[in-house]
Amino acid sequence: MPTATEPRLDTLLASLREYLGDAPPALSLPPTAYTSPQLWELERERIFSRSWFLVAHADQLREPGDYVSVEIAGEPVVVVRGTDDEVRALSPICRHRLMPLVEPGAGHAEAFTCQYHLWKYGLDGRLRGAPYMNGNKDFEARDCRLPEFAVEVWNGFVWVNLDAGAEPISTHLDLTADEFANYRLGEMVQVDSWSLVWKANWKLVMENGHENYHVLGLHRQTLEPFMPGGAEVYVQPYSSWVMHLRIPLTVPAVAESLSLNEVQKAHGMLLMGFPSGAFIAMGDQVVWLSFLPLTIDRVQVVGGVLTTPDQAEIPETTARTQQAVTAMINDEDRLGLEAVQRGVGSRFGDRGHLSPKEAPGMLAFYRNLAHALLE
User: Fold this and answer.
1) Contact 9, 39 (CB under 8 A)
2) CB atoms closer than 10 angstroms to residue 114
3) Where is the Rieske domain (predicted)?
4) Where are the alpha helices (DSSP H) in the chain?
5) How far apart are CA 265 and CA 251, in angstroms?
6) pTM for the full model?
7) Residue 151 binned pLDDT confidence (cut-offs 50, 70, 90)
8) SS3 breakdown of the chain: % helix, strand, coil, rounded to 5?
9) Of 13, 30, 54, 6, which Cα lies nearest the Cα of 372?
10) Distance of CA 119 to CAs 47, 94, 137, 225, 330, Å?
11) CB–CB of 172/275 below 8 Å?
12) pLDDT at 81
């Protein structure tokens, strides 16, 4: 039951419903939207169990047996390239006594073996061995396999949906084809990757990603000089799952091996995939990020830096320099958002008025959030 200081779930949902109108309030969410266990459980049911999450880049799955293991709101997922070259998303929970077959992270395996009782599964999820099970007349080894989730590789980005029958995410991502075709995303290679845990609610993190206003404060030395927080950000929603943002640059992006148009040279080209995946293209560099919800106040941040194959061969390429810069930016965001998460618990917390510099992107995110939770 909600406490005396915690609004009821229906009160929070009423606040969300306001963003579906023709004149949504230029206000942030109520502070309890980031702490309510009731809302978290509804998000697990209506968003996390049926949304597409960006979890990896295809370069992490080059060879049969390469895998990436993540967790989405308590549900473990392993994405692996099979011996048939197919990429699959499997539940890594042993069908015998529920021990995870792999820990979160990335690696390589010829098969997945449970360390509890040594049950072994192939890269396609089929059971390959179960010691001393022949004596159980009710057990059929051929019927035992790891459950599969929906998975799709789009221009090198690997997306997973816990709903095995989900509509393809490419249906929505393809709507942005004209914005990103010149970057030749499918040809890019990854030169850096990371996996971090931030102590913040996933919605706070995504609000941060939908506006550039915070660059004024959190990124004064790293981003503000060439991607100023006071610039006008263009926001184009394509569907309830995908939107595009253009962030003006003070210095045109250079990409000698790419034929970029004037708009692409003058902007950071950002794609946001609801609920929590994104990538931004700047010249011959692409940085991708995904914020996988773990608990009410924890997200796993996975991502990487991509560049063109020719630039990847140059030891001192700008894309490799971007690795250190991206790490600094990530840490600046982490410190800021973890502080905000502490702030939402204040008894004086209230909804904040949004600046015109942040409202377009944040209100678009709130609208998608409301659609997902209310419709």
Assistant:
1) yes
2) 21
3) 52-160
4) 9-17, 37-43, 170-173, 177-180, 202-209, 215-218, 262-265, 309-312, 318-343, 359-374
5) 9
6) 0.94
7) very high
8) 30, 30, 40
9) 13
10) 33, 8, 18, 55, 39
11) no
12) 98
Instruction: List CB contacts of 216: < 8 A, sequence separation 6 or more.
Output: 224, 228, 229, 230
Report the DSSP beta bridge partners of residue 302.
195, 290
Q: How far apart are CA 361 and CA 339, in angstroms?
A: 22
Structural contact between residues 362 and 210, judged by C-beta atoms closer than 8 angstroms? yes
Q: What's the pLDDT tens digit per position in 342-365?
A: 999 999 999 999 999 999 999 999
Across 88-116, average pLDDT: 97
How remote is the C-alpha of 158 from its chain's centroid? Answer: 10
Q: Give the H or E element holding residue 88.
A: strand 87-90
Question: Order of strands across the sheet with 75-81?
Answer: 52-57, 157-161, 148-154, 87-90, 75-81, 66-72, 105-108
Sheet (strand 285-295) strand order: 189-198, 298-307, 285-295, 277-282, 267-273, 242-248, 234-237
Residue 111 is encoded by which pair of tokens?
A: 């098969």
How many C-beta neighbours within 10 Å does residue 27 have?
18
CA 87 to chain CA centroid, nearest Å:
18
Mean local confidence (pLDDT), 192-207? 97
